[in-house]
Design goal:
Blueprint (H helix, E strand, L loop, with lengths): L1 H7 L2 H9 L7 E5 L5 E2 L7 E2 L30 E5 L7 E5 L9 E10 L4 E5 L5 E3 L4 E10 L4 E8 L5 E9 L7 E8 L4 E25 L12 H10 L3 E4 L3 H4 L22 E2 L15 E2 L5 H10 L3 E6 L19 H15 L5 H8 L10 E4 L6 H17 L4 E5 L7 H12 L4 E8 L1 H6 L13 E9 L13 H16 L4 E6 L3 E3 L10 E3 L4 E3 L1 H11 L4 E3 L1 E3 L2 E2 L6 E8 L4 E8 L5 E8 L7 E8 L18 E6 L4 E6 L3 E8 L2
Helix pairs in contact: 6-7, 11-12
The structure holds alpha-L-arabinofuranose.
Length: 661
């Protein structure tokens, strides 16, 4: 029945298409003494972009939507409670000249109001996820002429019950903006709560930056990130984190490009912009999607440090998204863009006596972030990109010769645009070429040997964005099912085998909020309270946790095992633990019994560990109800001598880990 289902979904076609690639045979050999390539510590990483409510409404734990009234519709996310007495009791004021970055605030005028008569409600990002017994930090900025306004803050669940509250009194007066912070504990859990503020008192009060954060953030940092989401990344031990995008680097037009300098410093001075995913897809409009930049470049660097990943920032190359406005900066006006790149390196690595090193220190990180990689451009193409890139490269390499630059090879892994860019980048001796592929699972299987014939001495490859698509790219029907994940696993054995060429790889996109996504498939799905990893997540995690230090050949009939008998394999040793790690992906619907002979070592330990990731059906997916439906399981395996005898289950990804001597 299961197999029949697979046939109906067309999946067996994918398995069969590779059967013809080689003869079936049982003799597989691992040459454990032939270290053919070093696996870079950066090999398996993650790519973060603020898409699918990835940052605001995602890892950035702020619960108030539109906290400073800067959305195009200034009251989006807010509703007025009660009936204002006079016209103008709630006014959105724009003080642009005084505060360019955060121009708007809300002026509320009270008329001897009592609690419950006039107030505000914030709906959060598709509701607010509130957890019982967790502390919440409420804060806001205010300005008033006379003291004595009371604000009653209430968290309200879906049925109207109050599940957390606090009261604040505004005491200060004068022209300065003041900040009040207070905390309270929630008495119950609610996935879609909202926050009410009742006003009591008389006279006007100006309000801005009305904020609510949980206290159980990542590393308990106030105003920090959602711990459950970051933990998923930390658990992968990623070699790098690429940020902040993706297309948001380029922007719909240049005014909406990502400018890192506007994302650092006090949060109330970080200038919000619209998120391009707000309106990119007519079929998935997200009118409340903006970038507040509470999560900015300092926080990205800090996150990289926290999870032991190399930071890989990508900067705008003087070009807006070529699918959208395709605006270009004239070469004569490229200098500020290049200066941004140079300043970023100083911000990350500079001594605290330098201009930007000092800014980093003032933000709480006097030590450097040890930036080694930087990307110039995301999915840019054409001679205009190469022309700009050369100017960037010259300026950056002159000042910082050790920074490795990542360059775009466009949107696709083949075709005219790719061929042109690939040729030009190789002529430039590009350090690292960023390749992207959003393709059908069959493509991943057919291209598992893609890197076997790449130039070993030339530019290195960063597979910066890839994901197998169960339907068409950007189709809403794409699923993170086992069919896509196993195809990626097969392809990744090819990357690992070619670790002398491929130095970095990351799945894309990383996060998606079930109530606010624009793009699917995505590696990790969340709602306001929960998170689950897809089968694709577990594939990525298993490769990363088993990356080893050196590639050794795994051969069938003296050829790399890449599709013969619908099997894909790679092998590494880990010099640190003196272990052999063999990865095998069986994309056929039958169990395959294989003996692996290990040569070039004296002995293998008799006790090996097997990790198996498999599903009953290729259409299987994980979900909040069944987060572990497709998840790795471990078992012991007894070995005899230097032979590893395996029964590879249908549609399975198997990892053998064993000590060598
Ligand atoms: O990952 C989603 C988008 O796909 C990225 O923003 C872009 O680089 C690619 O086209």
């Amino acid at each position: 029945m299961k197999i029949l289902q697979s046939i109906l979904t067309g999946v067996v076609v994918m398995a069969l298409s590779v059967c013809s690639m080689g003869q079936s045979g049982n003799s597989i050999t691992v040459k454990a003494d032939q270290l053919v390539a070093e696996v870079q510590p950066t090999m398996w990483g993650v790519f973060f972009e603020d898409i699918n409510l990835g940052a605001d409404g995602g890892i950035y734990a702020e619960m108030v939507k539109n906290r400073s009234f800067e959305f195009y519709k200034p009251m989006m996310g807010w509703t007025i409670l009660g009936k204002p007495l006079t016209e103008g009791d709630f006014l959105v004021v724009n003080r642009k000249k005084v505060n360019e970055a955060n121009p708007r605030f809300l002026c509320v005028t009270l008329h001897n109001n009592k609690k419950g008569s006039i107030g505000l409600n914030n709906e959060g990002f598709r509701g607010m996820g509130v957890k019982k017994d967790i502390g919440y930090d409420f804060s806001f900025m205010y300005h008033q002429t006379s003291p004595g306004i009371k604000m009653y803050i209430e968290l309200v669940n879906e049925t109207g019950e109050i599940i957390g509250s606090t009261v604040v009194n505004t005491t200060a007066t004068g022209s300065e903006w003041k900040k009040i912070k207070t905390s309270f504990i929630a008495s119950a859990t609610a996935p879609k709560a909202s926050m009410r503020i009742w006003f009591e008192g008389d006279g006007p009060i100006d309000l801005d930056m009305i904020s609510l954060f949980p206290q159980d953030t990542w590393k308990k940092r106030p105003g920090g990130m959602r711990a459950d989401m970051i933990q998923m990344l930390a658990d992968m031990k990623p070699g790098f984190i690429r940020f902040p995008g993706g297309c948001i680097v380029e922007g719909y037009d240049l005014s909406q490009r990502y400018q890192w300098k506007k994302t650092i410093g006090p949060v109330e001075q970080r200038q919000l912009i619209i998120n391009r995913w707000n309106f990119e897809f007519a079929h998935r409009p997200t009118p409340d999607y903006f970038q507040t930049f509470g999560l900015g470049f300092f926080e990205y660097f800090q996150l990289a440090e926290d999870i032991g990943a190399e930071p890989l920032p990508i900067l705008n190359a003087g070009m807006a998204c070529q699918f959208n406005s395709a605006e270009l900066v004239p070469i004569s006006q490229l200098d500020p863009y290049i200066q941004d790149a140079l300043d970023l390196i100083e911000f990350a690595n500079g001594d605290i006596t330098t201009q930007w090193g000092k800014v980093r220190a003032e933000m709480g990180h006097p030590g450097p972030f040890h930036l080694k990689f930087m990307g110039v451009g995301n999915e840019n193409w054409g001679p205009q990109y190469i022309e700009r890139l050369k100017i960037f490269t010259k300026a950056i390499k002159e000042k910082y010769p050790n920074i490795k630059l990542v360059n775009s090879s466009g949107t696709d892994p083949n075709g005219e645009r790719f061929d042109y860019l690939n040729g030009e980048l190789r002529k430039m001796n590009a350090d690292i070429i960023d390749e992207h592929y959003y393709r059908r699972p069959e493509w991943f299987l057919q291209n598992a040997s893609r890197y076997d014939n790449y130039d070993r001495k030339g530019s290195k490859i960063f597979a910066g964005e890839y994901a197998a698509q169960s339907d068409k790219t950007v189709s809403v029907n794409n699923k993170n099912n086992w069919q896509t994940a196993i195809a990626e696993a097969a392809f990744m054995t090819g990357m690992e085998r070619n670790a002398d060429v491929v130095c970095m790889a990351s799945y894309a996109p990383l996060f998606a909020n079930v109530d606010g996504w624009q793009w699917t498939p995505d590696m990790i799905w969340v709602d306001n309270l929960q998170v689950y990893g897809t089968p694709n997540y577990y594939v990525q995690k298993l490769f990363s946790l088993n990356k080893g230090t050196n590639v050794v050949p795994i051969l069938q009939d003296n050829k790399p095992l890449s599709g013969q008998d619908s099997l894909y394999a790679s092998a590494v040793i880990d010099k640190n633990t003196n272990e052999l790690v063999v990865k095998l992906v069986n994309v056929s619907g039958k169990t395959q019994t294989k003996d692996i002979q290990v040569s070039g070592i004296k002995k293998l330990d008799a006790d090996a560990k097997l990790t198996i990731l498999k599903a009953d059906d290729l259409t299987d997916v994980n979900s909040f109800n069944q987060p572990g439906k497709v998840a790795p399981s471990e078992q012991a395996l007894k070995l005899k001598g230097k032979k590893i005898s395996l029964s590879l289950m249908p549609y399975s990804f198997t990892i053998v880990r064993v000590k060598m001597s």
